[in-house]
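Issue 218. Parser rejects a valid record. Input:
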Amino acid sequence: REGTGKFPPYYQDTLPPVKEVGIGSPTGIKFGYAANFPEKYRNALYLLDWSYGRILVMHLKPDGSTYAGTFETLLRGKPLNVTDIEFGNDGGLYFLTGGRHTQAGLYRVTYVGKKIKSTNNKEQLAEASNARQNRELRHQLELFQGKHVPGAVDFAWPYLANDDRWIRYAARIAIESQDVNSWKDRALNETDVNAGLTALLALARCGKEDSQPALLKALKKFPIDTLNEDQELLKLRVIEISFIRQGKPSPDLQQLAIEKLSPHYPAKTEALNREYCQLLLYLGAPDAISKTLALLEKAPTQEEQIYYVLRLRTITNGWTIDQRKQYFTWFNEDHTKLGHPKEILQDFADVERDYSDGASFPKFMENFRKDAMDTLTAEEKLALTPVLPNADSKKSDTAAAPRKFVQAWKMADLTPSLEFVKKGRSFEKGKDAFTAAQCAQCHRFGNSGGAVGPELTAVASRLATRDILESIIEPSKVVSEQYQNTTLFLKNGDDVTGRVVEEDDKKIVLITDALKQTKKEVNKADVQERKASKLSPMPEGLVNVLTRDEILDLIAYLQSAGKPRYHAFKK
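Output the parser choked on:
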């Protein structure tokens, strides 16, 4: 799911990952069964990450009816844009590098050392046997999914109470695949906590609108004070799904829900706060806005603060002007010193880079503020003028000062000088060149820049020095399909080329100038044909205002991931 539609892993109408491996671009996976490696590495899953030039090894361990995992980095390089993996007849690990028309390479990894014998003891063998039985049970339940099978409900129902989340999930989907009238009453009357909440989740997903009152009243059998956190989150999710699929409940049920839920907000954990927040704001609880603003004020991480900003942005009723001011002031504050969850910081540390926001981050924040401003009345906008954005506040801080033409640089002019990128370069001059060549207008680097082109912080993990130079001098030689322009050929003989940023049944909106962010709207009825453009959105000649040394400093700056201590900057 994209953008703000992502499900957190604790939602029980989905399944959690076996293991999060962080940021990257996966290009290939392979189990090491054919490897002439120690047993630990023969039984492992190998994962290729093109963006950050690494091969990960995932060690899996049976865990109930699924697996748990830990991972390590087998090897990494700059560049090491890994694209495929295979194990040869000699037991070696072979992998390829390349992609985006860069130089391909074939490498082999072998193991040298004593053969390590199996360390499985009786306890481990018993665990493996138990896990196999659990997986077989899950597979049995999965056979009922997506088809009507007599007896499926009776077979699956006992497993709604199972401690294994994957088995509960399989049982619920099997039951949902059967006629809802055959199990609706059973769901409403179930008294076991896990089974009852899971069955009501199924009813919320499959039941019609008229089943909502009975469903919400059935939840009273499971008071929040008697539930552990996982069960409390599941109960809240049942309510959410009911509201999403069966509609907003009657006023008396809305009031009942507010009375039951409001005393528990704020909660003890961030996950619970997130779910109470969206439910109580949706229901219009009288104190939901004030409680959420208080959480926003003291939330220690950027991620938690943004969640409350996201949820508050479309709320139209219940605000005071002071609360509105507090909300919109948040957008004007510097959040760079806020913390981040340790898991996210570890993801960046694993690829040897500092934390930075994603390329789309500024646009998301801009959209959140726009959504919130759209809810304001004319009187509110006037009262909030000091904290709302104006034309001056939208000026880019990445615009470059005009510079004189130096030379129309070609690859042949600069290729012989690439050996001088390795040492004696200047971090500050490279940073200045990045701005002077207008790179920052379109590319995110570290925690600043635009989002029109590829993110460049980790470019050295996927492109060699010559490839980086070539992408600067000859941007149209290799154009990623992710950033490819589209040419619209019109019925009147004209054509329009740009990046499609919006499209519906009637119109197509393109950005025709990436640097100036010029937009053009075209009526769909006027379009005769569309084709992918072979020209890069990046204009040629942007570095023609730089000297040779400045271009070399720019390349070193790009390879440094923005770190002044990078080896090329040493004298």
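Fixed in the parser; the record now loads. The two ends are 48 Å apart (CA to CA).
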